[in-house]
Recover the amino acids of this structure.
C-alpha cells in the first residue's frame, strides 16, 4: 500500500483508538489500501505471516465500536481510500460503490447531475459509509438496508477474489438488477460476518415520485403509546405509508433539536433555555415522523387518511417544502414577537430532520450525542467525530414484533433498567414494515467518569439479557457484546464456524466479529 499508508506512530494511532463506547482495544498498525488488488495483497501477506486484520469502511460505527477490532492485536485495515463511485444506473435504480463512498459523496453526485434518484439515508452522519452501514444491516429513513446490496466484489480470507450474483459473468448486464444470480446466493454470507472484505457492491437507490410530504404526530400521554404504535401499524399494513416511521421519546426529540435551537440563541444562551423552548412548543412524551410522496392528489389522500386514523389518539402537523417556506416568511415578519422568534428557531432546527425524509444526508444528529452526555457540541467545528471527546454512548438495538403491546412492554423494561442504573436514554421506535419494530436506545454517559462508564455497560448487559429471555434478540450489537451473543453449543454458530474455516482457514479476517473464532 506504500509506506505513507502504513500508520504505526503512537500519535497517529491514537485517533483510531479513541472510542465513544469506552471500550479499549490494542492494535499495532493501520493499513490504508486504495484498490481491491491492494486489499488482496494485504490478505495474502496476512495469511503468509499469520497476521489478523480488522477492516472498516469509514469507522463511523458509533456506539457499537467504531474502528476498534473485536479482539486485541489485529491490524486495522482502513478502506476509506477505496472511495470510487464506479457506476450510477438510472434505469436500473442502483449505484456501484466502494466502501469508502459516503452518503454525502453519492448524494452530491446525484444532485449535481440532476438524476431522478435518491438515497435511503441514515441519520447518523453525512460522511458515513454506504456499504459499511448496509453490511451491518443498518436502518435507513425509507427502509432497512439489509439485502440492499448486489453483485458484491469480495476478497475472501484465503485471498481469493469472488463476485456474487451475476457479477462473476463478465458480460452480465443484470448483476445489480436481479441480485440472486444463478446457483447458491452468497451475498448473505457477507452481512455481519468475518468471511471476507467487501471492496465494492451495487446498492439500491430510490426513484423520486412527485412532491414529498411529512407528518409529525404527537401524543400527550405515555399511556397512548400502544395506540399510536397500532395506528402506525395500520397505516403500514394497508400501505398508506411505505417508509420507515420513527417514533421518538421526549429525550430523543430534545437531544436532536435542542442543540440546534441552542446554536441560534446568541449570548446568554443555556441548555435549560434551549430545552424550555421545546417544552413551550408542546412536544409530548412521544413524537412520530413519517413521510410519503406521490402526485398532489395521492399526497392529499394520504394526509386525509393519516388524520382520520390518528383522530382521538394523537395530534398531527403536516409539512412540505411550501409550508416550510411560508412559515419561515411569516415568522420572519413577526420576529418582534418572542413567541414567533421561538417558533422560528424550532422550525430551523427541524429542517435537517425533515430533509432526511427527502433523502438528504446531514450531520445535525451528531450533536445529540454531546447533548445527551451533558456536553455542548464543539462550537464552530465543521467535522464532528464523537469518538474524539468525553461524550459516551452505547447502542441497544433489539427487534420486536410490530404491536402496541410489545412496544409498551419493551419500553417498560427499558425504563426499569435506566432508572435502576441512573441513566439518560434517548429512544426511538422504528416501524420498519408491516411486521417489525426496531428499538434504537442510546445509553448516554461520560467516558471521563469511570463509575458512570461501568454503570452504563452494566445496564447494556442487563438489557440484552432481559430482552433475550423475552425472545427479542438484538439485530446488531457492539464489539463488547459479540462474545456474549454467540454460543459454541448452538448449531447456527457451529455452521458459521465451518463456513469461516472454508473461506478463511487461517482466521485472518476480523476474529471474534459475530463468530466463535
Amino acid at each position: 500500500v506504500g509506506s505513507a499508508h502504513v500508520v504505526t506512530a503512537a500519535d497517529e494511532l491514537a485517533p483510531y483508538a479513541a472510542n465513544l463506547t469506552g471500550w479499549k482495544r490494542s492494535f499495532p498498525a493501520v493499513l490504508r489500501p486504495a484498490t481491491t488488488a491492494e486489499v488482496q495483497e494485504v490478505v495474502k501477506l496476512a495469511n503468509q505471516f499469520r497476521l489478523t486484520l480488522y477492516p472498516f469502511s469509514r469507522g463511523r460505527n458509533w456506539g457499537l465500536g467504531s474502528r476498534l477490532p473485536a479482539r486485541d492485536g489485529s491490524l486495522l485495515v482502513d478502506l476509506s481510500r477505496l472511495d470510487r463511485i464506479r457506476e450510477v444506473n438510472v434505469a436500473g435504480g442502483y449505484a456501484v460503490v466502494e466502501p469508502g463512498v459516503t452518503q454525502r459523496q453519492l448524494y452530491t453526485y446525484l444532485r449535481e447531475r440532476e438524476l431522478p434518484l435518491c438515497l435511503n439515508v441514515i441519520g447518523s452522519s453525512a460522511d458515513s459509509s454506504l456499504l459499511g452501514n448496509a453490511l451491518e444491516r443498518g436502518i435507513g429513513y425509507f427502509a432497512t438496508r439489509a439485502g440492499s446490496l448486489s453483485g458484491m466484489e469480495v476478497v475472501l480470507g484465503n485471498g481469493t477474489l469472488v463476485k456474487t450474483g451475476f457479477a462473476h459473468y463478465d458480460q452480465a448486464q443484470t448483476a445489480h438488477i436481479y441480485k440472486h444470480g444463478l446457483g447458491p446466493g452468497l451475498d448473505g454470507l457477507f452481512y455481519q460476518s468475518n468471511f471476507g472484505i467487501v471492496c465494492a457492491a451495487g446498492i439500491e437507490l430510490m426513484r423520486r415520485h412527485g412532491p414529498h410530504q411529512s407528518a409529525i404526530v404527537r401524543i400527550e400521554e405515555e399511556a397512548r403509546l400502544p395506540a399510536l404504535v397500532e395506528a402506525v401499524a395500520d397505516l403500514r399494513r394497508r400501505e398508506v405509508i411505505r417508509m420507515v416511521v420513527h417514533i421518538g421519546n421526549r429525550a430523543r426529540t430534545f437531544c436532536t433539536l435542542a442543540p440546534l435551537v441552542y446554536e441560534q440563541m446568541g449570548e446568554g444562551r443555556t441548555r435549560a433555555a434551549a430545552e424550555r423552548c421545546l417544552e413551550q412548543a408542546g412536544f409530548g412524551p412521544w413524537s412520530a415522523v413519517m413521510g410519503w410522496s406521490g402526485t398532489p392528489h395521492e399526497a392529499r389522500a394520504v394526509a386525509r387518511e393519516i388524520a382520520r386514523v390518528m383522530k382521538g389518539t394523537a395530534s398531527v402537523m403536516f409539512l412540505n417544502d411550501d409550508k416550510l417556506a411560508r412559515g419561515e416568511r411569516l415568522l420572519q415578519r413577526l420576529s418582534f414577537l418572542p413567541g414567533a422568534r421561538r417558533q422560528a428557531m424550532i422550525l430551523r432546527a427541524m429542517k435537517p430532520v425533515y430533509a432526511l425524509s427527502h433523502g438528504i444526508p446531514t450531520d445535525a444528529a451528531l450533536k445529540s450525542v454531546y447533548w445527551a452526555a451533558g456536553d455542548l457540541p464543539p462550537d464552530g467545528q465543521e467535522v464532528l467525530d464523537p469518538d474524539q471527546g468525553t461524550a459516551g454512548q452505547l447502542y441497544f438495538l433489539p427487534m420486536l414484533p410490530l404491536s402496541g403491546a410489545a412496544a409498551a412492554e419493551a419500553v417498560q423494561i427499558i425504563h426499569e433498567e435506566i432508572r435502576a442504573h441512573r441513566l439518560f436514554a434517548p429512544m426511538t421506535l422504528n416501524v420498519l414494515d408491516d411486521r417489525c419494530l426496531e428499538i434504537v436506545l442510546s445509553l448516554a454517559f461520560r467516558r471521563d467518569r469511570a463509575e458512570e462508564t461501568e454503570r452504563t455497560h452494566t445496564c447494556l448487559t442487563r438489557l440484552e439479557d432481559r430482552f433475550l429471555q423475552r425472545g427479542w434478540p438484538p439485530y446488531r450489537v457492539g464489539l463488547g457484546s459479540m462474545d456474549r451473543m454467540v454460543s459454541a453449543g448452538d448449531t447456527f454458530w457451529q455452521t458459521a464456524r465451518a463456513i469461516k474455516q472454508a473461506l478463511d482457514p487461517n482466521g485472518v479476517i476480523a476474529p471474534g466479529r459475530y463468530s466463535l473464532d
